[in-house]
Amino acid sequence: MADERDNTSPEEQALADEWAAALAEAGDASQDDIDALLNQAPAAAAPAAPRAPLEDFASAPKSTAVPLGLEGPNLDVILDIPVSISMEVGSTEISIRNLLQLNQGSVVELDRLAGEPLDVLVNGTLIAHGEVVVVNEKFGIRLTDVISPTERIKKLR
Predict the structure, then answer these.
(1) Is the confidence at residue 44, as pLDDT, over 50?
(2) Spelled out in words, what is the top-level CATH class assigned to the domain 83-101+114-156?
(3) What positions does the domain Flagellar motor switch protein FliN-like C-terminal occupy (predicted)?
(4) pLDDT: is 156 or 48 the higher one?
(5) Is the CB of residue 131 less than 8 Å from the CB of residue 118?
């Protein structure tokens, strides 16, 4: 016990002494005393603070300085949330054995025909189809067909 006190800092020792005093104090109380305190707690508690009303997202935006230009609910709160967008050329399933045998120059056959449009996915949800274009020596996607918002919602359910 003396060895443990030599290895502790004064702050840790003060905290340990406080805990020891609290435990000793609690040891003197009986279960009846604890039950009586618990039963008195709701009556002695302060009245709850009034709840603030939640913002109605379907209402018009409070600031009219910047028009949103979007129909429907107030989307101002979510417009700056980043999402992940990806373009899928195609997919296939292969065994782990074949996956481990892939090396530079290997060809993997996909489930799409050449010239078929790519799938444009946002957070894994299909939102459009498109074709590959080159702009200033960089690849890009020209959207050829955008899935309607109602169709996207139907797919989520």
Answers:
(1) no
(2) mainly beta
(3) 78-147
(4) 156
(5) yes
